[in-house]
Amino acid sequence: MVKPVEFWFEFASTYSYLSAARVEAACAGAGVPLIWRAFLLGPVFGAQGMTDSPFNMFPVKGAYMCTDMDRCCSDLGLPFRKPSSFPRGSLLAARVAAAHADAPWVGSFVRAVYHANFADDRDIADDAVIAAILTEIGQDAAAVVAAAMAPDGKAALRSATEDALEHGLFGAPSFLVDGTLFWGNDRLEQALAYARAA
Predict the structure, then answer these.
(1) Cβ pair 163, 8 in contact under 8 A
(2) CA-to-CA separations, 85 to 1, 58, 82, in angstroms, rounded
(3) How many CA atoms are closer than 13 Å to the CA of 197, on its beta-carbon side?
(4) What is the pTM of this model?
């Protein structure tokens, strides 16, 4: 029986932008169910003793990431502009994605938030930007945000981040298949193959 792929992502993550752009179509093409799992990297990095993105902590690594993202986005036909603020906060966006993970529009929302951050350099930390994105994809922004900000909505993201730590996630994007971890955008195909073999 084919196992689902859990796609673990954080909206501030550059390489998650690449995966978010292709994971839904890739899973559909492989006949593998997809589970969207938004979480926050801050607590995950904190558990590793980090107080900032490794791309900021190690400037050489950050410079390489920008060059690599240019190449990878070009290969995928995706626009890329280094955000004027990095990493950007994304609490509301993550709460929306976590609270509405099963909604048929969640993939469109996730891709739109990534595009806003990494192609248009919009401030996804601004609640008004997230509301505008929801409206742009045809959703009732006020209702969606209200559900995400309700106690259950907040708890969904908090629980997901705790689950990420329990599963041993240390970065994004990550893919989990039946408890087995695959880390990095370039491991999506391995995760899909494992899901089909399982």
Answers:
(1) no
(2) 44, 16, 8
(3) 8
(4) 0.94
